Amino acid sequence: MSTRVLITGATGFVAGQVIAELLEHGYAVRATVRDLGATGKRAHLIELAERTGGDLEFIQADLDRDDGWTAAVSGCTEVVHVASPFPATPPDNERELIDTAVEGTLRVLRACAAADMVRRVVLTSSTSAIAYGHAENALRTEADWTVVERSPAYPKSKTLAERAAWDFVGKLPAGDAFELVVINPGMVLGPVLSTATSTSHEPVRRLLARGMPGTIRVGWAPVDVRDLAVAHRLALETPAAAGNRYICAGEHLWMGEIARILAEEFGPRGFRVPTRQLPDWVVRAVAIFDKGIRLTLPMLGRTERFSVEKARRDLGWTTRPVRETVLDTAESLLQHGIVGAPTQRKTGSRPAAAPAARV
């Protein structure tokens, strides 16, 4: 296959798996990185390309700068825009988070519109652009949108960035227009390809490392990153996907359920996974000092319910069992040394990490 696809945010958790999926299916991939000199951050991708014999090249481009995007898009017929900031703690300035998400998306789309070859863009959004700010926990579909006035910073950023993308494409002259497809994943779990993790790994990491004394009354609608990568490929390949949003998420899973899955598998291996649920007042007290816990406060008691019928019908998308996803996530955190063996770690310890990641 001679088609070259541009993937943004190559070293991110989701982008890495999308790159792997496309290489394995014969696509030539160009991937953006913020710093070409930081070769160590993409060593796992280079090794992946060598192992699969895939055609992978890198180019420097940053969501915060105009430089590099024209060259990045040049010669590509499809673009998958994955990169977006995903903070591990509540941002001090939500405007900076929102501006990076929105302006970064528009930089990519402007470059696509100016190029001659781009026929389709697949944008990675989130169920956070669908489910927040509503009064009830109703079943959500692609027709729903988050109410930004009643939402935390991250859902605001994802909602406004996706809205900006649809508005941009809708205003393009007919001769310059390209097709837009949006993927709206739930909480993304699954194995990491390197020591770089995503904010979405934190519940599994904290539970496995006993980085908290109990579970929190929060839950998510998880999706395996490998299944999500398949959804991105199908969004590129399915003609009827043009102009559509697709929810990619599973059934709601409470943190306590994740803890029990981990305890059953890893308890016999010496891991003391906490399964007792903490009262909400304790969580709020801990959140005063722990910014990572503070990020979960808007989600206390909140149930996420999504229909994935559209993705199944249009894309033929399927998912693996959530237990497999949770356990594979944990195993990869151990394999990459992100969580140490029980005799090698102090409670709650972890390697140093940046305060925010790009998914």
CATH architectural grouping of the domain at 4-189 and 223-248: 3-Layer(aba) Sandwich
Question: How many helices does DSSP assign?
Answer: 12
**Most strands sheet:** 7 strands, parallel
Number of strands: 13
How much of the residues is beta strand, in percent? 5-15%
What do we call the CATH homologous superfamily of the domain at 4-189 and 223-248?
NAD(P)-binding Rossmann-like Domain
Description:
This protein has about 350 residues and is an alpha/beta fold. The protein has a domain at about 5-190 and about 225-250: Rossmann fold, CATH 3.40.50.720. The chain is about 35% helix and about 15% strand. It is built from twelve helices and 13 strands. It has helices at about 15-25, 45-50, 70-75, 95-115, 155-170, 200-210, 225-235, 255-265, 280-285, 290-295, 310-315, 320-335, and strands at about 5, 30-35, 55-60, 80, 85, 120-125, 180-185, 185-190, 220, 220-225, 245-250, 255, 355-359. The protein has a seven-stranded parallel sheet, with helices on both faces. The protein has a two-stranded antiparallel ribbon with strand order 5-13. The protein has a two-stranded parallel ribbon with strand order 8-10. α1 packs parallel to α2, α1 (about 15-25) crosses α7 (about 225-235) and α8 (about 255-265) crosses α12 (about 320-335). The radius of gyration is 20 Å and the shape is globular.
